[in-house]
Amino acid sequence: MLKKTLDKNTVPVLDVRNLEAVYQMDEGVVRAVNDVSFTIAEGETMGLVGETGAGKTTTAFSILRLLPERTGRIPRGEIFYKGENLLKKTPDEMRIIRGSCISMIFQDPMTALNPILTVGDQILESLEIHNIENKTKKELESRVDELMTLVGISPARKNEYPHQFSGGMKQRIVIAIALACEPLLLIADEPTTALDVTIQAQVLVLMEELKGRLGTSMIMISHDLGVVAKTCDSVAIMYAGEIVEYGTAKDIFEGKVHHPYTLGLFQAIPRLDEDTLRLRPINGLMPDPSDLPSGCKFHPRCVDCMDECRDGKPYPYNQNGHRILCNLLQREKRV
Amino acid sequence: MSMLRTVNLKKYFKIGKNRFLHAVDGVNVEIDAGSTLGVVGESGCGKSTMGRLVMGLLPATSGEIFYDGVDILRCTKAELAERRRKMQIIFQDPYSSLNPRMSVFELISEPLVMNRACANKKEQLARVIELMEIVGLAGRFINSYPHEMDGGRRQRIGVARAIALRPEFIVCDEPVSALDVSIQAQILNLLMDMQDEMKLTYMFITHDLSVVKHISDEIMVMYLGQCVERARSKELFKNPLHPYTQALLSAIPQPVLGKLRHDKLLRGEVTDPIDPEPGCRFAKRCNVMKPECIEHDIALQDVGSGHFVACVLCGG
After folding, report:
1. Per DSSP, what are the bridge partners of residue A33?
2. ipTM, 2 decimals?
3. In this structure, are residues B26 and B7 in contact, taking their beta carbons and an 8 Å threshold?
4. How far is A76 from chain B (nearest CA, A)?
5. Cα dist. A206→A169, A213, A225, A251 in Å?
6. How confident is the model at residue A1 (pLDDT cuts 50, 70, 90)?
7. pLDDT exceeds cutoff 90 at A284
8. Are B201 and B3 in contact (CB under 8 A)?
9. Cys staple from B242: which of A49, A57, B229, B314, with CB 3.0 to 4.6 Å?
10. If you measure CA to CA, which chain A residue comes closest to B208?
């Protein structure tokens, strides 16, 4: 069993190094995650931003070792959870880690819950599975009440079924299940995408509060730069399976140098606080992950594409931890 | 001259014995030719029902819909058929709104064939190719099926179908919600370019305030089947008056560093408008509710320069 307490700041909660994940399909190999590295410190929230097919969810599933058994593989890389390599764990060991040390909030609360179990039973389930202190059923039941109160739902409703709750309430229950065993790391996969804005605001504020209280680290997977700006300490921008830009939230939202894709994302969204006459979309489409372009993966869509971008790895810019994969920044350096 | 005008439009759905869900409850809209009315609100506020009513896809419970001055709920069938060609709709989900067994050619031809818009096969093919060009679909996709295409391209098929009969008025029901941001921008630009070139009139239904601000001339905010505020786009964002509009605006996270504000957070959630009690439907979630809010219904009032609000705190 892994220790639940952390040796102060010596080891990051999560340290992902050169992670690659592929899906073996009939048509060929789909390279969903390519050479991804990042670390998450205690209490830190990292935003993982990208569009459909960027590899955000595959990264999350790799960490939890939830890739589909028949097709998913991790050919290269290491994932250290508090210094221990998760890729070397047996399935039984992983089952203990999932839920108690690392847990996940899924995108769609409508399908994440079991429709034929009461919400109370579903929260109880994860407590029972990870009941290492051999608590009595009564003690666990009182913990269920505590968790429901924590996420703002009256414990009197624990005998109701998921369909009796609204979307926002269901997501609160999913959060209660994820936090039941007080994990050190929470992976939230688009936790508010299926919710209305006023409910999204409620859920985000709740997550922020709970994170502060429990000291949980978090990976916030989102396509919404607004949500990321309000919740994250660091941000990784993913494109075609690679982290093309990584830095503190300040680097990403207020910094001067960026990856062209990051700039494209910012220019493509209409803003409430300024007037845009015409949106500037990113030309073209996300590449097919089974047939990725050579060189910089973004070069076919990039407005500043140069000859050297078509082959070889793009220049790895790094300034105090603000990492960008782009040849443009190499040119700037030479000048 | 307004292209579309509704008067006290209502749609009640019967749910069980003598219980009614007031999906749209007395909405008056007016859309000028060549302009865009944005309809915003959260799920369950009746915005999609509104779009379907205007299109005649759902029969209204009561009220009037004037299209080009003709009441389309009470005109003859022939008159209606004439009008229907001028009105089209683009649906939200390009994954479920296209028949998976039809190719792009068949999908775009369908409205042309149904309305006998083309004299012969040659003309039909030429028109399909022309439409594909307008919406930015490469010609090589003409024999492809929807499942072979990504969301952005599928939505372009939906747009091509909608403009095939050269309509004047298009209801866009969340046309970009299912798309990624970079693709969303492409479709929004396409819709705005088409409006300029073909002098189209849009009713743009969405839950996304940033999108609606970008595309609309006038905006209507709906809450539980009623219009709570209506104003020119600029005016609404500069000077939101209804507490619900204010809460909605402050709930949207902007891509600027900072924390979400706790003080403006709305309590509770949208309820079902089943046989609602008189008074403001927003009162239960409102931070500034007064006793008179729940005494009687609150009408939309003009607070000057085309800005209408239904709130006792404003001008009442």
Report:
1. A21
2. 0.84
3. no
4. 29
5. 12, 11, 19, 26
6. very low
7. no
8. yes
9. B229
10. A197
The predicted pLDDT at position A3 comes to 44
Instruction: Answer yes or no: is A172 within a domain.
Output: no
B152 and A CB contact within 8 Å:
yes
Q: What is the pLDDT of residues A230-272, one digit of tens each?
A: 999 999 999 999 999 999 999 999 999 999 999 999 999 888 8
How many Cβ contacts (< 8 angstroms) between chains A and B?
A: 123
User: What's the CATH code of the domain at A205?
Assistant: 3.40.50.300
Task: Nearest chain B residue to A226 by CA: give it.
Answer: B255
Contact assignment for B181 to A265 by CB distance below 8 Å: yes
Report the distance separating Cα A228 and Cα A295, nearest Å.
Answer: 29
- Please tell me the distance in Å from B257's CA to the nearest CA on chain A: 5
The answer to whether position A303 is within a domain reads yes
pLDDT tens-place string over residues B281-315? 999 888 888 888 888 888 899 998 889 999 998 86
Q: Does the beta carbon of B253 lie under 8 angstroms from any beta carbon of chain A?
A: yes
Measured between alpha carbons, how far is residue B42 from residues A100, B247, B251, B271 in Å?
35, 12, 12, 11
**pLDDT the model gives residue A9:** 55
What's the confidence (pLDDT) of residue A195? 84
Enumerate residue ranges in chain B where pLDDT < 70. Answer: 315-316
In chain B the domains, ranked by start, together with CATH numbers, are 2-309 (3.40.50.300)
Query: Is the residue at A8 inside a domain?
Result: no
Confidence (pLDDT) at A334: 53
- Amino acid residing at A241: G
Q: Which domain holds residue A249?
A: 14-101+183-334
**From the candidates B48, B141, B181, which should be mutated to test the interface with A, based on the most A CB atoms within 10 A?**
B181
**pLDDT tens figures, A48-78:** 999 888 999 999 999 999 999 899 999 999 9
Q: What domain count does chain A have?
A: 1
Residue B45 CA to residue B226 CA, distance in Å, equals 8
C-alpha A305: how far from chain center: 29
Q: Does B256 touch chain A (CB under 8 A)?
A: yes
Q: Flag if B152 and A285 touch (Cβ within 8 Å).
A: yes
Nearest to A271 among B210, B247, B260 (CB): B210
Within-domain flag for A138: no
Question: B10 is written with which tokens?
Answer: 């209502």
Smallest CA-to-CA distance from A230 within B261, B253, B252 is with B253
